[in-house]
Amino acid sequence: MDKLLLRGNGPLRGELRISGAKNAALPCLAATLLAREPVRLCNIPHLRDITTTLELLSTLGARVLVDGQLGIEVDPRPVHSVVAPYELVKTMRASILVLGPLLARHGSAEVSLPGGCAIGSRPVSVHLSGLQALGAEITVEDGFVKAQAARLRGTRIVMEMVSVTGTENLLMAATLAEGRTILENAAREPEIVDLARCLSAMGARISGAGTSVIEIEGVAELHGAEHSVVPDRIETGTYLVAAAMTGGDICLKRTDAGLLESVLLKLKEAGAEVTTGADTIRIRMKRRPRAVDVRTAPFPAFPTDMQAQFMAMNCIAEGSSVVTETIFENRFMHVSELQRLGADINADGKTAVVRGVQRLRGAPVMATDLRASASLVLAGLVAEGETLIDRIYHLDRGYEVIEEKLSALGADIRRISNTRSVA
Ligand SMILES: CC(=O)N[C@H]1[C@@H](OP(=O)(O)OP(=O)(O)OC[C@H]2O[C@@H](n3ccc(=O)[nH]c3=O)[C@H](O)[C@@H]2O)O[C@H](CO)[C@@H](O)[C@@H]1O
Ligand SMILES: C=C(OP(=O)(O)O)C(=O)O
Fold first, then answer.
1. Domain range annotation of the chain
2. What CATH class has 3-19+231-416?
3. Is 117 tagged catalytic?
4. CA distance 280 to 257
5. Is domain 22-228 annotated with CATH 3.90.76.10?
6. At what positions is 2-(S-cysteinyl)pyruvic acid O-phosphothioketal found?
7. Longest dimension (CA), the chain
8. Tens of pLDDT, residues 357-367
9. Contact by Cβ (8 Å): 192, 220
10. Which of 28, 117, 198, 315 is catalytic?
11. Rounded to 5 degrees, what are φ and ψ at 10?
């Protein structure tokens, strides 16, 4: 199992290209199952979750062609199976996203209940009740969601809670339903807008994506298309925090400041100078970060996927802060690991009080989920001495070549590969 070894060594400096968004690429890949022709996706990041999704699409029968560095063409015409098996689905939450497309396009689907980051119970009731409202018969048996419908029928659905992948699944399913579907209380994340753009390029008729009411006029079929996925706002935010924590000066390219306004506001509150261009963000930090309170909530509020990174920054900030996690009930697993590095954090329920310390000290720590892992990398960048992070397979789910990108900015970080599995 690979590990990361870091030594805190001062400010990050330089330029970096941001990858395409994992959480946009995954639904777009699932959406290819809806088409009658090949769909080409560009700006796809090299990540373990993407590889898993491509394996899943191949298992269903789709022909997957990886062209060049960042392009992937999926030909859904040879799809012959509607079963998404446990072995593939267990590692990745987003695999539930094939449910809506398979059902809408093939009339049935069997998808193992998904895994993913262990940050809470993460039910899929919003997905299932929405598909039922569209006319599907759904049962959950032997760990599989089994769904059937000759043709879905458009209807008005008020989602019981704001769910990102729930909105995406219903949006995809509704594109091929008969008549109009109105999704109310929809999630407004940029990745949903991106998915709607991809589906529209395939011939879907969608309005309102990015607002809480999305209208979809069902069509008989979707055709081939080409779509480039949005930049990864969470990767962007993670590198911005890295620069802020190390007192650095970096410029991120091929990103979009409009996707992470709440994060940029918090960085400015912490004392960073942030300058944005058409597809660039430059951050300069000339002081010790000021502690900032953070409260996670659905977009456009502060993202839960940036909570752990800001907690890491608050650990070395001037003053105290309160970090409140309102989305997931178990997303403070980084607290005990940050404490091993000398952080002063008191977590109780959904709130953590962080008192900034002058310095962290390196220690062996364990990654527990994707963004928790990122927070440990950030802490390792400023800790005195060596930080050794174990179980970084979580990190590989969501960050493309993180050690190469940070090294290019001057960080002392290297991957220690161990071919012997310690399971
Ligand atoms: C692949 C992907 O895009 N993952 C993102 C997506 O996850 P995901 O789509 O799984 O997250 P949701 O938006 O569905 O979850 C939000 C909250 O609603 C709850 N809930 C959700 C569905 C449901 O049927 N019942 C229910 O109770 C969840 O347990 C959670 O407490 O959005 C999260 C919230 O921004 C992000 O952290 C994840 O990175
Ligand atoms: C929680 C995340 O991923 P997933 O929903 O795929 O588990 C994430 O991207 O931070």
1. 3-19+231-416, 22-228
2. alpha beta
3. yes
4. 7
5. no
6. 117
7. 63
8. 999 999 999 99
9. no
10. 117
11. 95, -170
